[in-house]
Amino acid sequence: MERKVLSLLCLFFINVSAQRPGGDYPSFFNIGGVLSNNDSETHFSLVIAHLNFDQTYVPRGVTYYDKTIRIDKNPIKTALDVCKHLISRRVYAVVVSHEPTGDLSPAAVSYTNGFYQIPIIGISSRDAAFSDKNIHVSFLRTVPPFYHQADVWLEMLSHFGYTKVIVIHSSDTDGRAILGRFQTTSQTNYDDIDVRATVESIIEFEPKLETFTENLMEMKTAQSRVYLLYASTEDSYVIFRDAAQNNMTETGHIWIVTEQALQANNTPIGVLGLKLNNSNSENEHIKDAIYVLASAIKEMITHNETITEAPKDCDDTGAVWESGKKMFNYLKTRHIKGETGHVAFDSNGDRIYAAYEVINVQQPMLSSTRKNVKVGSFFYDEEKGRMRLKINDTMLVWPGNTEKKPEGIMIPTHLKVLTIEEKPFVYVRKLLDDEIDCEDDEIACPHFNSTDGNEKDYCCKGYCIDLLKALAQRINFTYDLALSPDGQFGHYQLKNHTTGIGTSVKKEWNGLIGELVAERADLIVAPLTINPERAEFIEFSKPFKYQGITILEKKPSRSSTLVSFLQPFSNTLWILVMVSVHVVALVLYLLDRFSPFGRFKLTTNDGTEEDALNLSSAIWFAWGVLLNSGIGEGTPRSFSARVLGMVWAGFAMIIVASYTANLAAFLVLERPKTKLSGINDARLRNTMENLTCATVKGSAVDMYFRRQVELSNMYRTMEANNYDTAEQAIQDVKDGKLMAFIWDSSRLEYEAAKDCELVTAGELFGRSGYGIGLQKGSPWTDAVTLAILDFHESGFMESLDKEWIFHGNIQQCEQFEKTPNTLGLKNMAGVFILVGAGIVGGIGLIIIEVIYKKHQIKKQKKLEIARHAADKWRGTIEKRKTLRASLAMQRQYNVGLNSVSKSISQAVDKNRNPKLNPLSRAPERAWPGDHEIARNRRNNDQTYKPPPRYMPTYATDVSHLVV
């Protein structure tokens, strides 16, 4: 007591003589203390007294005073004491301890001071509730909360190499907080999949346990044998009691527990636990709290922060103390080296960089008591600026009192295997109603539909099924095979989750990956592409097949139309040839027509000469030369026309030879090429091009396009065309509905080998491999990988390629590509149609000719009849004229008729007798001049005139001839 008075007097004289630096802040600060005993109160006063002499933390003109009260187990009394004895004295901060038998006393202090934003520094409270700044708005503590032990758990798991654990925790705030801390820190701070711990199972229990046997039975069915326990000392006693009764504290099991569980008096041998350094050293924490507070106030003064007077009355519901809020923010940024180690805080005001001891429960030889032995420490490394774990493995004793580290996992021998239909890797056939079992080369693979709950029986075979059989035989496990419930490989999808607060949207895996992540399957044996997105959540074996991404398209069909025989020449050339034929024919006709030597005698017996070449003959000649047909008649006769004919023959020879050569090239040797050159083809990159391409939704190829920024435009175009399954897309490529299907090269090469009309375009891109999918931390990972590597070396994988992927068809397609095409009806149909058209045209023309000829004959007959009638009429008229002339002449020459009657009678008789007088016969022709003799005479003598048929000399009396 005398020492305390002496210290206060010294402080008084120092403050009187000291010069106060500039700034708007008080010259003295009252620091309150709510402590648990007299020793803590005395120590609190001494620390503040010594602080005033430490110029490192106290500026000139500033003095600290202590105001302490005793904490009470009654929180209401504690709150009243804070108002009466601390706030009324204008305390700027309060250091609070923990009541040994009560849990709510620090909360009462926090609520009371927090209402006025007066900072509170706890030195013993470790409950997770004080981390909630919505309730304890100004609470800071120099001890870490219990759930921070999860950080040490993760370091220990990484050290021992355990990647799959079971978390056992109470259902209170601290138990759930430690689970959340464990999972969050594992995902953010441990990126390496080899050291990341995954929670296989979570066992949550209500505090105040009576039995834990039922939960232990559930833990036995899990693979993991590493148990992380957070429980109170009383609950830990029950858990360890029941675990021992079920032999779960013996060899092969690992227990890692927190401080409270380590204090149970039945903690098994080999348990690893934690102990916070200086957890019971209240005096050290008091000093660290006061110095942290002094450091924050000095920092505020250095930055010229305004510090107003603290609240002084709980009855005054005045405004919030803004200086208290600023002071709390400065407190959270403190980093000092104190009595309890490196003191720093996180955003919640919780102590970080707290040091722990790793404790191992051991039983010394020749002793029946158990002993807690320190085997390691978790401490702050000044050089690296982070926490480090150091454990002496040689000192460890594991459950079962053994020194050999357990595997930490129970390896199951019967696995649930999932696959998916993807030819040729997995062929799926539905089991018929009359079938009971699958065939010898098949395995039963039922499909359970998670949507409607129905199960259907299928049989599977293929590349992956043979690989699964070989793996099971090599590494000795049994299995049940099933198909993917939703028929998907697996991709992220958004799902709505209903909680007590409301509905939240969360991304989850579906398909095969979702089943593996949810631990509803142990193995995926399928053409599962290895990619970073999937490898973050599951493990892959080494690839059993290396492949990439390629493009499947249908070979361009040859232009074998009805006019295929016209392909060797362009349309322009054909038109020019047609025009040339008729132009040459016209020129030949003109040359032969106007040539002076166009006509000449032929050495024929009849002495006739041939006419010049007419136009129709010239056209016939030009076509005959061009088509290489025999020319019998109608050839040019003049020298100039013959020269042109020779030139035309040469032209025809060149044209025909060129046509023949090109026809062979177009119809026989032509091989269609792929439409696309690969992924870098401009038509794929150009979104305006009318070219449809697609892949499978949610597949590894779809993920690849999402990752590639340079393919973003192309992906936006193809995203709307993507298919649910590869089978649908391949069928649409065959049908011509889809121009390009982008998929795994193994599958597309198989389709191209099976159907020679399909072809893969360009080189492979996005190279990857197919791997076996396993759960995180699966004990089968190494065994499966070693078996696959051995299969590659032994040639087993190559034999699977030949049997299932190529089928020998690729050699047939290659041979088909190397041999020339055989011309068929499809190629030459146009020629046959041309001949048919010629035949039909000829028949049509002959019918027209026959009809025309009949019409001409009928018309000629009518003309002959008309001509005959006209001839008869003319003869009658001529006869009448002749008779009239004869009568007239008879009257004129009637003299002497009687004397010569005899001679006249004779003449008349002679006229009546045709034999005696040929002229008395009726005329055979209507025109006597048409007689051949008369025509010949007319030609010889143009002046000849036939004598009149009736001469008056011969008959004087012709009355008997008048009609």
From TrEMBL:
Please state the span of the N-terminal signal peptide per the UniProt entry.
1-18
Subcellular location per the Swiss-Prot or TrEMBL entry: Cell membrane; Postsynaptic cell membrane; Postsynaptic density
One example of a Gene Ontology biological process annotation: ionotropic glutamate receptor signaling pathway
Q: Which cysteines are joined by disulfide bonds?
A: C756-C813
First-listed, main subcellular location of the protein, grouped into a coarse class: membrane
| Transmembrane feature ranges | 573-591, 643-669, 828-852
Which GO MF terms are attached to this record? ligand-gated monoatomic ion channel activity; signaling receptor activity
- Which residue positions hold the site described Interaction with the cone snail toxin Con-ikot-ikot? R706
Q: Which PANTHER family match?
A: IONOTROPIC GLUTAMATE RECEPTOR
Name the chain's protein: Glutamate [NMDA] receptor subunit 1
Question: Species name for this entry?
Answer: Aedes aegypti
